[in-house]
Amino acid sequence: MWLIDLFRKKSEPEDNSMKYLIVGLGNIGDEYVGTRHNIGFRVVDAFADKQGVAWQDKRYGAIAKTRVKNAEITLLKPSTYMNLSGQAVRYWMQQEKIPLENLLVIVDDLSLPVGKIRMRGSGSDGGHNGLKNIASCMMTQNYARIKFGIGNDFPRGTQIDFVLGTFSDEDNKIIEEKLEYVGEMMKSFCLQGLERTMNQYNKK
Fold it and tell me: Is residue 128 annotated as part of the catalytic site, yes or no?
């Protein structure tokens, strides 16, 4: 009898509805630490610290695993550099068997003022190489993302220098105040879903 039960358990499809992949975009290397383009890394680092979990170097990136109530969360910092982020996202979604609707990407956004936060369920890459590569590898732009504003106060033609530059002390104070706020959005996404999270947080 126990053999029949064991066979049934093995043959039943695995329920992955509460497994989530949250990706912070950035570039690896000391020269990129603290840059505007690495705000995604900074967000997931703060979340991992808050949850008390450590990072492990794995294939295509650093991984930290945690739980929020009944949600199993895999945090990812791709080690592929920004323009190949999609390779890491695709690999870990397949590795952890995470459905597309449970993917959340944290990304810097030039079109938003420093510290302004917006969640979207889909959309264009807006010229962001990380989002562009994710869309290419996943063959869709229909995945959730949190856009973290980094401002756009730079002279024409100096965009690359700006995004690879560091925040001012004043901007850093704004960023620090927002890290926990974004962490709450991440939890809400896992526990309440995309629509309710957008309705609740995009109005603030």
Answer: no
Q: Is residue 11 part of a domain?
A: no
- Which helix (DSSP H) or strand (DSSP E) does residue 109 occupy? strand 103-109
pLDDT in tens, 34-75: 999 999 999 999 999 999 999 999 999 999 999 999 999 999
pLDDT in tens, 144-200: 999 999 999 888 889 999 999 999 999 999 999 999 999 999 999 999 999 999 999
Q: Among all chains, which residue has been given the structure tokens 């732009």?
A: 141
DSSP calls for 124-176:
--TT-HHHHHHHHHHT-S-SEEEEEE------TT-HHHHHTSBPPHHHHHHHH
| Total count of domains within the chain | 1
Q: What pLDDT does 8 receive?
A: 52
Whether 35 is in a domain gets the answer yes
> Cβ(61)–Cβ(114) under 8 Å?
no
Active-site residue (options: 37, 42, 128, 132): 37
- CATH code, domain carrying 188: 3.40.50.1470
Nearest to 60 by CA among 89, 94, 21: 89
In a domain, 143, yes or no: yes
Q: Which pTM does this prediction carry?
A: 0.90
| Whole-number Å distance between alpha carbons of 86 and 95 | 14
